[in-house]
Specification:
alpha+beta, Taq DNA Polymerase, Chain T, domain 4, 722 residues, 20 strands
Length: 722
């Protein structure tokens, strides 16, 4: 076979085409997108290959293919055989007859009766490291209202402190993109200063702006001292624009946007995935031509897509949310990542050793109860020991064995010590592997952990934390909470830790406008005791701990749209009892039921839920054919406006706190956000002022019909501060 022969895997080509383009059917209802897409790809491959040969085969594995794809593969084989100009499995000359056959076949399957050209990049690319030319590029860029840029960043093992800029691409019209390598006089610092200057006169556009703040501070941040402002004027001045954040707001159900997704979704131009272009090779080792080409395309995508993304944001009423909350927050998250938090390696090891001792004790106790040694971490072996050898009551056995899931074991634990020991063993083993052992790998050369804060992951708008996830630091058990002792402030500092008290319940009171619930929050501090008193019709002073616990479960269950069954599982009571609790709750707070019915209906009508600040959360499950999925959709419709509003309020609080510290020129720095909690590494001589700022700025983040309350404590480590 000739070296110039084009090899085409027909099966894979048809399958990939079927999933890559919008689905459509022929007059008989057959799905034919894969046929059309495959012939289109063949047309493109043959168009510039005159005088060559090609070979299309259909012998790859199809076991995992759907019936629709298999039918289309058969249809393509049939068409090729009928056309008689292409020989499947054999080398075929690329002739005019072959091209004509492919073109005519393509037209016969086209839904519009014509074949449109796939959109392509048409910009030219200029690569330069000449200082005079670079100066001229930035001079011309400063004359444009909108300038996009994209940094080529190298970092080792994801470490924050290892980030290094290799170059910068810039684009300020639809005809040309520029790539400027970091070399000689063109340093990362030089490029950063140029962007800072540019941000005064032009709106800078990029993808994942937080990554580039290592190299420059935009004028809008450097020059700002005021906290959150709910106005429109901010978007009229030059402001940065992150196409990643914008695209995420437009579609928060997609939590893994990459730049090729932006290109395809907003421009219709296909771009190879970054991982496919570079693989696992460090960018510093990539061929310069490949790197500059990709960088130029990235800058062009940012430039061309930003007005389309903004138009969609404006149409959905989320422009203010984008400019006034999400964009300033992106810099604050970067600043928190940069500060990091000190984690003591020796204390982490001591904690791990302590866990190891208890894990070994539990292992021995479990083996004695079982009468033999076995792999406690194996669900199959554990199931056989518990339900066959020890004869504990089991749920129905499946092909894979007995279920040993947490919810199954938790029901048995109160009556069977061995099960309680297994649950404790599991919890401690996870603590040891994830935190005691796992966190050590994330401590960087400065002795700090620099977690990544993500604002484009959750559908509700909540901030998440990865590498490592500091938001999952355990709080349910005392041994779990002790992990916080390894996190300490630097010398001459303490931690100031503030969190919202029952923020989601307070938002529910505001959004439901239930006067009973609103009054309860104005009556006293203990909302659960007040609710128990009203629901169970007993005097406030006579509410029992059990009644308060049940009322608390109902309070929070309502926020999350919990079902009668869910509440029964949570409280270990019958479904009928749970139903009665719920009924009493809604009798006590009828506005809550009215609110839930209203938001479910609104979400069904609109297709999305909305927070007090205009954040939208699409809920396609409400139109699902499956009843359980529709039920899930209704729970989302009840909870998303509350959880999303809580996320918005926390973000506003962070903006308020960050700029209040800056305005007063304090040395203390915001370093962590954990759900409803903020942590500041506080200099001891600023402690009282910082506590005052935390409480004041968090409480004024939103004006609700019930007060926002904040608890604030300080300590010499995170455990003590919490």
């Amino acid at each position: 076979m000739s070296d110039t022969t084009l090899l085409i895997d027909g099966n894979k080509l048809i399958r990939d085409a079927f999933y890559a383009i919008p689905d459509f059917t022929d007059a008989d209802g057959n799905h034919i997108g894969g046929i059309y897409g495959a012939f289109y790809k063949i047309k493109e491959l043959l168009s510039g290959a005159d005088g060559q040969t090609f070979k299309i085969t259909f012998d790859s594995e199809t076991g995992s293919f759907s019936k629709d794809v298999l039918w289309q593969i058969g249809k393509v084989k049939e068409l090729i055989e009928k056309g008689a100009v292409i020989k499947a499995g054999e080398e075929t000359d690329i002739t005019d007859d072959v091209k004509s056959f492919v073109e005519n076949t393509l037209l016969s399957f086209s839904p519009s009766g014509e074949v449109k050209e796939t959109p392509k990049f048409k910009h030219s690319l200029v690569v330069t490291s000449d200082l005079n030319e670079v100066e001229d590029i930035f001079k011309r860029a400063s004359e444009s209202e909108r300038v996009s840029y994209y940094f080529a960043i190298d970092k080792k093992d994801g470490a924050f402190l290892s980030k290094k800029a290799l170059g910068l691409s810039v684009c300020f019209d639809e005809t040309t993109a520029y790539y400027i390598p970091v070399v000689n006089f063109i340093t990362a610092d030089y490029l950063g200063k140029k962007l800072s200057e540019l941000s005064k006169v032009s709106s800078l556009v990029t993808f994942d702006i937080k990554e580039s703040f290592c190299f420059y501070i935009p004028f809008e941040i450097e020059n700002r001292e005021n906290g959150y402002e709910d106005d429109d004027k901010l978007s009229s001045s030059p402001r940065c624009f992150d196409v990643l954040i914008g695209a995420y707001l437009n579609n928060p159900l997609k939590n893994d946007y990459e730049i090729h997704d932006i290109s395809k979704e907003y421009l219709g131009i296909p771009l190879q995935k970054k991982s496919d272009v570079f693989g696992k090779t460090a960018l510093s080792e990539v061929d310069e031509n490949i790197l500059s080409d990709y960088m130029g395309k990235a800058a062009f995508i940012c430039y061309a897509s930003s007005p389309l993304i903004l138009k969609k944001l404006s149409k959905s009423g989320m422009e203010k949310l984008f400019y006034n909350i999400e964009m300033p927050l992106s810099y604050i998250l970067f600043a928190m990542e940069k500060e990091g938090i000190i984690a003591k390696k020796d204390a982490l090891k001591e904690y791990g050793d302590k866990l190891g001792v208890r894990i070994a004790e539990l292992e021995k106790t479990i083996y004695e109860a079982a009468g033999c040694e076995f792999n406690i971490n194996s669900p199959k072996q554990l199931g056989e020991i518990l339900f066959e050898k020890l004869g504990l009551p089991a749920e129905k056995k499946t092909k894979s064995g007995y279920s040993t899931a947490a919810d199954v074991l938790e029901k048995l634990a109160p009556d069977h010590k061995v099960v309680a020991d297994v649950l404790e063993y599991r919890g401690l083993a996870k603590l040891k592997s994830t935190y005691a052992d796992g966190l050590a790998a994330f401590i960087e050369s400065d002795g700090r952990i620099h977690t990544s804060f993500n604002q484009t992951i959750t559908a509700t708008g909540r901030i998440s934390s990865t590498e490592p996830n500091l938001q999952n630091i355990p709080m349910r058990t005392e041994l779990g909470r002790l992990i916080r002792k390894v996190f300490v402030p630097k010398d001459s500092c303490v931690f100031a830790d503030a969190d919202y008290s029952q923020i989601e319940l307070r938002i529910l009171a505001h959004m439901s406008e239930d006067q009973g619930l609103i009054s309860a929050y104005h009556e006293g501090d203990d909302i659960h005791r007040i609710t128990a008193s009203k629901v169970f019709h007993v005097p406030f002073e006579e509410v029992t701990p059990l009644q308060r616990r049940n009322a608390k479960a109902v309070n929070f269950g309502i926020v999350y749209g919990m079902s009668n069954y869910g509440l029964s599982q949570d409280l270990s009571i019958s479904v009928s009892e749970a139903k009665e609790y719920m009924a009493k709750y809604f009798d006590t707070y009828p506005g809550v039921r009215t609110y839930q019915d209203r938001v479910i209906q609104e979400a069904k009508n609109k297709g999305y839920s909305e927070t007090l600040f205009g954040r939208r959360r699409p809920i396609p499950e409400l139109k699902a054919g499956n009843f359980m999925m529709r039920q899930f959709g209704e729970r989302v419709a009840m909870n998303a406006p509350i959880q999303g509003t809580a996320a918005d309020i926390m973000k506003i609080a962070m903006i308020n706190v960050f700029f209040a510290l800056k305005k007063k020129s304090l040395k203390s720095r915001l370093i962590l956000q954990i759900h409803d909690e903020l942590v500041i590494e506080t200099y001891q001589d600023e402690e009282d002022l910082v506590k005052d700022i935390l409480v004041k700025e968090m409480e004024r983040a939103a004006d609700l019909s019930v007060p926002l309350e904040v608890d604030c404590h300080t300590g010499s480590d995170w455990y003590e501060a919490k």
